[in-house]
Every structure is written in structure tokens, then in C-alpha cells.
Amino acid sequence: MTNRDGTGKEPVLEVRGLTKRFGDFIAVRDLSLAVRRGDVYGFLGPNGSGKSTTIRTILGLIKPTSGEIRVFGRPVGGPGGREGLAGFVDAPGFYGYLSARDNLRILAAADKRKKEPPFARVLETVGLSERARDKVKTYSTGMKQRLAIAAALMREPEFLILDEPTSGLDPGGMRDIRALVRRLAGEGLTIFLSSHLLVEIEQLCNRVAVIGHGRLLAEGTLAEVVQGTNGHLNYRLVVGDAEGALQVLEDSTSSVEASRLDVEADRMEPSGEEIRLSVGPEGAGPVVRELVTGGVEVRALVPVRPNLEDLFLELTEGGGR
Amino acid sequence: MIRWELYKLLRQRRTFLGLGAIALVPVLFVAAIQITRRGPDEGEVPFAAQLLENGLVVPLITLGFATFVLLPLVVAFVAGDSIAGETSAGTLKTILGRSVGRTELFFSKAVAILVYCLVAPAVLVGVGLIAGYFAGGFEPLAGPGGAPISVGRGIALVWSGAGLVALPLLGLAAFAIFLSVTTQNSLGAGVGAVVLVLLLRLASGLGLAGPLEPYLLTSQFEAWLNLTRDPINWEPVIRSAWVSLLWAAAFLAAAWAVFVRRDVLG
């Protein structure tokens, strides 16, 4: 298994200051990011945020207005720029009147490789061996997505770009694709996965970039991004008496150093009353000490795993800040 | 890539709808003649007088007829689809995500369309010869000056006529490819190319073209008739060839220049 930390490794993809305009519309503005070898890099953004435009420039389908894109250190527009790179953007396009096998043959011819492409193996990998002779127009959305992955794998890439690979699939289809992505990552492929589904990114990726209105809103390891921009930690505090606890916490704001308390009371079951705590990087220790000293019965302190969804909405609904 | 472009063309329904329509023309023509026992009047159409007794005139008359609408129509729609069809189906982005360069892909497509421009009139005269043979057998032709044209020379005339018609078709196809690249709309490109043919015909008909008349794309469709003269009048034949190729080269170059620079969306 590759090191998923990603730091200090050679960059597979470098995007620097990418801007793409279509007339007056700026689809992507000054976007910079780096994907390192072994990353499963989540590219997260709502529909229309510039994800596909970014991927099209990486694949060399459109020219950037400004900025630079390098894959394995080579500019994508230049000679050999797409070597080692494979992927697809938007809904995969195939010749519906031809069989899957013929489609792969045409793409293999376009690959200009002397080696016989591993048709059988890639079809097997995505589970399409049985239907390889059928016309693609008879395929379901999920099968087309899998064929697109097969077509990409046929290039035997080291870096795979998947644009919303589970889009339009039923839950079973999504599960299959995610299992496949996990397996490919386990085999050492570097993967760039765009999605607007947070759960997908959380399940599959070690690093993530969040994009909205064409701008990069956050980038880093999943943990870094999830912990949010303010670096606060969230807890669910169960106490005997929420009013009393809030009183203590209110008084403590001056006494507890650098601990900005953002407290809401939420009256719950008889087991206790809950308070949502948000504390600074020094943790919940000082707060709990104060509560106990103040005579508040602390029954439980449960860390709330920060939610990517909340963060995502916070980041993307701010109009790109 | 050329091989695969031809293969794709071969596997598309629109290719065969076009060729089927072309093949139907001589068959229907012969059937109609057999039923009515009446042909077009001499003067309007060359060789019409011999129609009832000589099958060799069938491919000649249908070739002259098909250059007006059917051949340009069929070629316009197939060539108009070449790039735009792949853009809208999303296959262009799939192909261009591989290693092949845009220039190579473009010219592979252009060669496939060139082959189609040769095949379309060949199908017309091929079916015409067969239909004509079974309808009336082959006799020597009475040429425009009255001098007889032997059956062998007549058959050669039929095939070279088809070859000469392919050249302005290629010019038209290049224009349709240009529209296909620029409009990214398959149907629009086909219609646009047909409209060009109609406008040029209208300009000729109304005498608006003046000294440009011999250089209109549509004027080149009649050049093959010069092959029937004895001796052959080569000057208009040669001019037709270079004028047609000039149209083709100009629009292919323009289409290529746009294609290699364009952002691939869709």
C-alpha cells in the first residue's frame, strides 16, 4: 500500500494559476493544486463550479486562458503531454452503433502504442467481458461508466482522472464503482476523482480540494479540510443542568484563555441535557475543569466528527468568498 | 486511424441511407421507363433519344440527374456529420483524450469522406450499368455530334464521368466539414452545404455570377459531359479538376485551422 500521506512525494499533477474564460464568463480563476504520487485526490464542488472545465484543460481538450498544467512534469499541451495519463470528463462518449470491443479498438488505435492493448483484462476488471460484443447503445449508464474506466485503464496509466464516475448510477452501481476505485488505488494508481458527493470523497480520498465558482476554496488532507477553516473542535456535552452549565461557560469566557465558546443548549432525553461545544485548538480540558469546579455534573463529552457537508456548504454558499 | 474512420463510416446508418438512396435512383428510373415506355425529351437531357433501346445511357442520364440534388445532398449530410456528430455524441473528447494529435484525426476523417465522395457516384453508375444492362442491353452510343461511341468507350465514359463528378463533391464535402467544425451542429452543417449548392445554382440560373460562372463549385458538376465529345474537349475538364480541388483545399485548410485550436466541449 502506498503512503497516503502524500507529502514530500513527486507531484504527478501540478496546476498553477489556471484561469479559463469563455467570453465574459470566467469558469476557473487562478486555480492551483498539486496531486502527488499515490494520492486519491478528491476534487469536490457543486455542479457548475468549474470541475469539468479544469479536467478538460488537464486532458488537453481546452486551452487555458492563463496558467500552467504539468503532468509528470511535462506541460499537457506539449509532446507526450498525455503520457501516463488517462481519464474521462463528463458523461463518457462512445460510438453507440459499435460494440464495446470495437470502441476500445478505436481508442487503442488513437493511443498510438505498439503494444497489443490488454482488451480482455480491462473488460474483466470492470466486469464487462460478457457484454463486450454488444453495441454500446444497449448499455446502461453504469455500464458506460465502467466501459469508460476500462478505456482509461487500457492506456495502462499511472495517473487516472475520473469525472463524477458514479453520476447517474443506482446505489449498487455506485458501490461497484467505488470498490473498483479503491482496488485501483490499492494497486498503486494515483487517482484524481471529481465529485459533488461528499460521502464519496470521504470514503475514497486522502486529499481533497474544494472548488466553488471556479475558485479553490480549501485544499489539503481530508482531516485538514474537514477541521475547517477556523481550526475549532466540536463536542457534544451532556450535563445534568444545561442552564447552569451555560452560566458557568458564559462566566468563563474571560477566565478560560483563548477558548472561544460557541454554545447552544439543546434539551434532550432524561439522561441529561446537551450542549454543543466548540473549542479552540487547546481542546476541551480547561472547559470541563471549569464546569466541574462550577458544580456542573458532566455526564459525557462526545467528540463530534466534523462534517464535510457542513464545511462544504459553508465554503460554497459563501459565494466563493 | 484512417482505417478506423472508414470503419466507423461503414457502420453508420446514415452512410447507407445515402448510398441506398443513390442506388435506388437508376433502379427506379429503369422501372419507370419500363412501365411508361417514355423517356425525357432529347434536348433537355443528352442521350435521351436512345433511352428505350440502349441500357448504356441509363448510368449517364442518372449521373446527370443526380448531380443536381441527390449526390450533393447525400455528401453534404455525411460530411456535415463528420466532426459535429462526434462532438455531440461526446466521442470527440474521448478520442482526443488519447495520444492521437488533432491534425492526424482531422485528416483521417477527411480521407474517409474523400473515399465516400468517390464511392457515392460509383454506386450510382455501377447500379445504373447493371440496371441498364438488364433493361435494354448495351449498344454503341450516339455521341452529341452524331459520331458513334463504342460500348467499351461508353463504359469507360460512365466511370470517368463518375470520377469527375467526385471532384466537386469533394469540394462540397470540404465546405460541409468546415461548417461541421465551426457550427458543431451536424444537421446545420449538412443543411448549410445544401444551401450553398442551391444558392450557387440560383446565381447561375439568374446569370448573377457573370465572369465567375466557370469557377462556381456547381458549374463543375457538368464538366464530365465534355468527355462525351469527339474529340474530347479537355480544357473545361482540366479546369473543373483544379477549381474543385481548390475549393476542397481552401475549406479543408480553414476547417483544420479551426479544429486544431478549438476548445472541445460537449
> Number of helical runs of chain B?
9
Given helix and strand content, the structural type of chain B is mainly alpha
Q: In the residues of chain A, how many domains can be counted?
A: 2
Strand content of chain A: 25-35%
CATH class of the largest domain in chain A: Alpha Beta
User: Segments of chain B where pLDDT lies below 50 for 5+ residues?
Assistant: none
Rg over C-alpha atoms of chain B, rounded to the nearest angstrom? 20 Å
The DSSP helix count of chain A reads: 10
What is the CA-atom radius of gyration of chain A, in angstroms? 24 Å
Instruction: Report the average pLDDT across residues of chain A.
Output: 83
- The level of helicity of chain A is 25-40%
Say which CATH homologous superfamily of the largest domain in chain A is assigned: P-loop containing nucleotide triphosphate hydrolases
> What would CATH call the architecture of the largest domain in chain A?
3-Layer(aba) Sandwich
Q: What gap, in angstroms, lies between the N and C termini of chain B?
A: 22 Å
Kindly report the spatial arrangement of strands forming the biggest sheet of chain A: 6-7-8-3-9-10
Largest sheet of chain A: 6 strands, mixed
Q: Into which percentage range does the β-strand content of chain B fall?
A: under 5%
The low-confidence parts of chain A are 1-6, 254-270
List keywords for this structure.
heterodimer; A: 321 residues; alpha/beta; Alpha-Beta Plaits; 2 domains; B: 266 residues; mainly alpha; two-stranded antiparallel ribbon; 9 helices; globular
Question: What secondary-structure arrangement, pairings included, does this model have?
Answer:
The complex is a heterodimer of chains A (321) and B (266).
Chain A: E1 11-22, E2 25-36, E3 40-44, H1 51-58, E4 66-71, E5 74-75, E6 85-88, H2 100-111, H3 119-125, H4 141-153, E7 159-163, H5 171-186, E8 190-195, H6 198-204, E9 207-212, E10 215-221, H7 222-226, E11 233-239, H8 242-255, E12 264-266, E13 273-279, H9 285-293, E14 298-304, H10 308-316
Parallel strand pairs in A: 3-8, 3-9, 6-7, 7-8
Antiparallel strand pairs in A: 1-2, 1-4, 4-5, 9-10, 11-13, 11-14, 12-13
Helix pairs in contact in A: 3-4
Chain B: H1 2-10, H2 13-36, H3 57-66, H4 70-89, H5 91-96, H6 102-136, E1 141-142, E2 148-149, H7 151-183, H8 186-205, H9 234-261
